[in-house]
């Protein structure tokens, strides 16, 4: 049996300083800019578990790791491919997060090459560096990372200090292997797979990242889907969508699977079609609202298998008057007009696994 490792994850709670309309706009902008920054790029070349926490009513999931002997909390993001942390004194000393001090690490190296990453409403910039990276039971020597002296205010209230990208190396702004790819390259794991269980803040279910294998509880029901292009995303073919078992006509052909995105963001016509089939749904401006007591079951199909989204996961924010913000929203990713962005609203309902060698994404229902 393959050895694998588990990392418990934490959940991040939403900030109350924004209205629900502003929070939806933030989610959309993050997605559009996160993926839009890659449109102009040329075509790219083709288990212990760790604790994971979730934040902001399941806005995102993060967990601990050590870089250069210094401890940080990282957002685990399958939609990006870079590791970064803030530098001591970042934002001219106004930052609130744990920060990296090069003087405290004997293994720190840098050639002072600049790096910059844009995540939508958030961005970070500084220099590229390498150091020893430790998470779960693994140690990676000379792991490339970004040492940020500038971090936008969008990260100020986040419970995590930096981001650990888990997409393919071809997306890396640092042009370097991700930590998990290094584990595979160094043969530190017996399997090229990592996987997530993403729990719910509201019912206290636990979250975890499995490294170098698959949780045995889900292995027999795991169905893989091949990645369909060489952009570097975990992008797979979308089979279709249903509401309460009835097929919905949608135009989306592919879906990017992204643990670092909260919502499911799809072309507006597809969002219209799905919400038209949900009793009591309402469109307010460009946003979709659903009854707070909805029992509608939305399902997505991949590889001939249909996976249900629990009605509770369709509800992401209170909009008042018996209505809630839908976890499925309409918008277009720049340069990817027929592509769906499938985030945690869906992923909380499946064990989601990612095989870097076989370039495939697997799902198994949690129930």
Describe this structure in words.
With 367 residues, this protein is mostly beta strands. It has two domains: 5-31 and 48-194, Cathepsin D, subunit A, domain 1 (Beta Barrel); 215-365, Cathepsin D, subunit A, domain 1, CATH 2.40.70. The chain is 11% helix and 42% strand. It contains five helices and 27 strands. Strands 1, 2, 3, 4, 5, 6, 7, 8, 9, 10, 11, 12, 26 and 27 form a 14-stranded mixed beta sheet that branches. Strands 13-16-25-17-24 form a five-stranded mixed beta sheet, sandwiched between helices. Strand 2 (48-55) and strand 3 form a beta hairpin. The longest helix is centred in the N-terminal third of the chain and has 17 residues, at 20-36. The chain is globular and about 60 Å long. Mean pLDDT is 88; it is low at 38-49. The active site is at residues 77, 258.
| CATH superfamily (homologous) name of the largest domain | Acid Proteases
> Helical segment tally?
5
Strand portion: 35-45%
CATH class descriptor of the largest domain: Mainly Beta
DSSP helix fraction: 10-25%
Distance between the termini: 24 Å
| SSE-based structural type | mainly beta
Q: How many domain modules?
A: 2
- Based on DSSP secondary structure assignment, what is the total number of beta strands? 27
- Compute the CA-based radius of gyration: 20 Å
Mean pLDDT over all positions:
88
Please give the CATH architecture of the largest domain.
Beta Barrel
Pick out the low-confidence regions. 38-49
Main beta sheet strand tally, sense and closure: 14 strands, mixed
């Amino acid at each position: 049996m393959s050895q694998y490792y588990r990392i418990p994850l934490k959940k991040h709670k939403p900030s109350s300083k924004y209205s629900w309309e502003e929070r939806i706009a933030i989610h959309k902008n993050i997605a559009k800019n996160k993926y839009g920054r890659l449109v102009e790029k040329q075509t790219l070349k083709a288990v212990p578990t760790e604790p994971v926490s979730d934040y902001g009513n399941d806005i995102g999931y993060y967990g601990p790791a050590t870089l250069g002997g210094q401890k940080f909390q990282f957002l685990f993001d399958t939609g990006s491919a870079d590791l970064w942390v803030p530098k001591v004194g970042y934002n001219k000393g106004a930052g609130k997060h744990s920060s990296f001090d090069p003087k405290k690490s004997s293994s720190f190296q840098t050639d002072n090459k600049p790096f910059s990453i844009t995540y939508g409403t958030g961005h970070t910039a500084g220099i590229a560096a390498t150091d020893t990276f430790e998470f779960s039971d693994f140690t990676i020597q000379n792991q490339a990372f970004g040492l940020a002296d500038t971090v936008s205010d969008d990260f100020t209230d986040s419970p995590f200090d930096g981001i650990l990208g888990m997409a393919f190396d071809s997306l890396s702004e640092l042009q370097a292997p991700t930590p998990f790819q290094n584990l595979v390259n160094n043969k530190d794991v017996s399997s090229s797979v990592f996987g997530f269980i993403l729990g719910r803040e509201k019912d206290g279910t636990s979250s975890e990242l499995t490294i170098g294998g698959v949780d045995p509880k889900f292995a027999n029901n795991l169905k893989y889907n091949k990645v369909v292009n060489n952009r570097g995303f975990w992008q797979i073919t979308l089979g279709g969508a249903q509401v309460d078992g009835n097929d919905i006509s949608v135009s989306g052909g592919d879906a990017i699977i992204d643990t670092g995105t909260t919502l499911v963001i799809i072309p507006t016509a597809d969002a219209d079609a799905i919400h038209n089939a949900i009793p009591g749904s309402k469109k307010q401006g460009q946003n979709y609202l659903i009854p707070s007591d909805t029992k509608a079951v939305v399902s997505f199909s991949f590889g001939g298998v249909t996976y249900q989204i629990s009605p509770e996961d369709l509800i992401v924010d209170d909009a008042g008057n018996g209505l809630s913000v839908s976890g499925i929203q309409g918008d277009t990713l720049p340069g990817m007009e027929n592509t769906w962005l499938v985030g945690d609203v869906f992923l909380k309902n499946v064990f989601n696994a990612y095989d870097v060698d076989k370039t495939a994404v697997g799902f198994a229902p949690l129930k």
